[in-house]
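Lab manual, section 2.4: Encoding a predicted structure.

Procedure: take the sequence of the chain (352 residues), apply the prediction step described in section 2.3, and record the output as structure tokens. A sample record is shown.
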Amino acid sequence: MRTRPADPAFTRHNSRGMNARASASGAHRRAPSARMPSTAGYMIAAAITAAALFFVLWWMLQASGDESPWVPAGLAASVVMLVAVAAREVVMRRAWTRYLLEQDQPGLSNSSESRKYRPSRSMHGSRPVGNSVAEAHAAQFRAIQKQSADVDSLSTSTPETHLDLFNACKDYLTSTDETLRSVVLSPESRSNLRISQERVRALKKHHLLSWARGASQSLVQEAQRRVLYGDKIETARRALDCLDSALKLYPEETELNKSALALREYIVSMKVGRWVEMAERAAFKGKFRRAIDRYCDALFYLSREEMDEAVRAETAERIGREIEMLRARISTVKESETSSEERADGWSVPES
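Recorded output:
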């Protein structure tokens, strides 16, 4: 019995469908997987770029007859590295956001065949992607909580560890804000993410304040060990900068404000103490007018700096008493010199 040949139209349609599905599945198989961002890789790439720029500029300058080609080449390479380090945080933050958004997504090509067989994002793709991003943020939140507990439990934790955790919390809040704006999440995932954000904000504040306290205390102790007044003041200003950077974010913190005021008073006392010491040395050498000038310099710095008014008034009163004593001594010296001259004139006998 002869069989009826297959319908040519059906055969062509079936073959086109199979070829399209094969090409789509091949595109799925060929799609590269998203790579996890690496800070080390970013810095290595920046170093390679800077090194290449250095050698190219060095060769060009040497060929042109420059006597020291390594100087401008080194400066150019240094500028490249500085720009790379300054932009590292922004670049890595965007890379992590892109990685979280692309995680578990098949990398389809832009051809018409792949777009034809790609599932609709609003119907199929948004919810799995949102769930995967929410799970990634949840894992990051658990890691931050664990690191925070470990740092708080250690009595030997340094201020730098608190600063690192503060930066980790800041990066987490930035990435989660980006996710809430750009990724479709279920109501439960969105609610959980906002709860995690509130907890991370509390951890961020805690670790920033811990860093400010620890760093400022360490710098104050270092300032007290210094010998020169200039070194003491410079180190104390670094400690004050730590507190001021924390107060920019949390200006209502009473403890930080008190510590900052105490540091400012310490810096003022160093400045005023320097001029007072110079005045005392001048007075000891009998240079009373110079001593008065040094005391006036101390009053000038005392009136300019920010400090407690009661302490300012007490210090100014003490310096004023010293100035009055020096003026009295100057008057006494003048009177004694005048009386000595008069006695010398009285004892002199006119020649006959």
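Check your result against the sample. The CA atoms of residues 216 and 241 lie 8 Å apart.
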